[in-house]
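Re: the 501-residue chain
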Amino acid sequence: MSAVAAADIPAYRLHYGGGWQSPHSARTIEVRSPASRVLLASVPDADAQDVEAAAQAAQAGFERWSRLDVFERARHMQALAALVRQRVPALAELESAVTGRPVREMRAQMGRIPEWIEYFASIALGLEGEANRVKGDIVTLTHQEPYGVCALLTPWNHPILILVKKFAAALAAGNSCLVKPSELAPVSTLVFADWCREAGLPDGVINVVTGGAETGAAVCASPVVQRIDLTGGTATGRRVAAAAGARLVPCTLELGGKAPILVFEDADVDEAASGAVFAAFIASGQTCVSATRFIVAAPIYERFLDAFRARAASLRIGDPADEATDVGPVISQASASRSFEHIEAARAAGARLLCGGDPPTLTAPFDEGFYVPPTIFADVTPDMRLFREEVFGPVVCVTPFRDEAEALALANDSPYALGAAIWTRDVARAHRVSVQVKAGVVWVNDHHKNDPRSVWGGYGESGYGKENGWDALVSYMRKRSVVIRTAPAFDDWFAGGRRYG
């Protein structure tokens, strides 16, 4: 790279306390395009001193923010939503460049970001306390209050969407946020923090430190942090849960998944195949709810395979900035290697390869990118690695079933329980199966649809806690009970009182 070109590469600083801050740490992290490996930016690899400075700024921000009336907080959030809505095209291009996801896909996702901010700003206005007259001439009052500084640990696959899902609920409840984005895609989070400043949010309401695992551990260990919210892998979730448990602070964990898709014999096969391609290969299969295990009724099995293969084979792989691209790269060399390892293991185990499997042939500079083609294996049995392990890439399996009981047994044969989908035109079956399949989010005749009003979260190795909806808002608040005696005189137990207890 020439000196002139190097000078054009942004070198971001940390963003906390309402502005850009020079890091204490001299270490930096390069951010490269997963599509071409071109250097896009560098960010600081924050150390414990950087984290503590940002945490103190977040605490000061909390003192300011929490004292505002909820109507004033809502006005600030609505102003931020309006600014973000104006900048959706720029935000989509930035997200696409850093994550490798097709720009058309990112425009659709970024277009909905303001809705989360507006929704939580609005429903917070409906929060009300409770009052009850109880036994013994007592009135109890219940107040809800924010925790304080909340640590948000966000992933690389949906940097802004997942940040805003957490951030909007936390802020609406009156908290401030200390954010540690993934080191693979940290740039849009830093830019978003500066937009918060520009929109008029008080200093210290959102604070961003960039770095790797050590930075994340320092964030979780900060004595200032009163709540932790992570979206990431199950192994990381266990470490974060242990850190939260050691400090006795609550946490929400949205972790891995191995989503089953049940396709019954009465489903429209062409529609189910179209839905399967969307469910499996949007974001190059890099979402926690990506469809990975297709469990298909034996009478339509081969018809479904033919339709699924034809649709997947037609997807266009290439430059994420090209409007015609359907599938971009996976995020890193490690992700690509893991995907191809699963492909080779499935081949060795005797699974039937329907499409994909080999690296695509692309022209420069995309021949340097981390591309994995949409890959489908049929006749996969529950003992095969591809059926059991999360790939987090565009590699999926298809397994036949004989009856509803076997379909459910196959679907539930997993430690994960985040997302699932059911394709059927039988309303009774849809209801019946949806409450028996192990998943916190179940779609019927669709997939991936998300909304700020739809509760989101799983259990088992997929984590715990909820995003979206009232559940998310109240999870960012704790309740206080105030007990008031209304009797005219104190009932002295030791002087013979009888109403104690």
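The chain has 17 helices and 22 strands.
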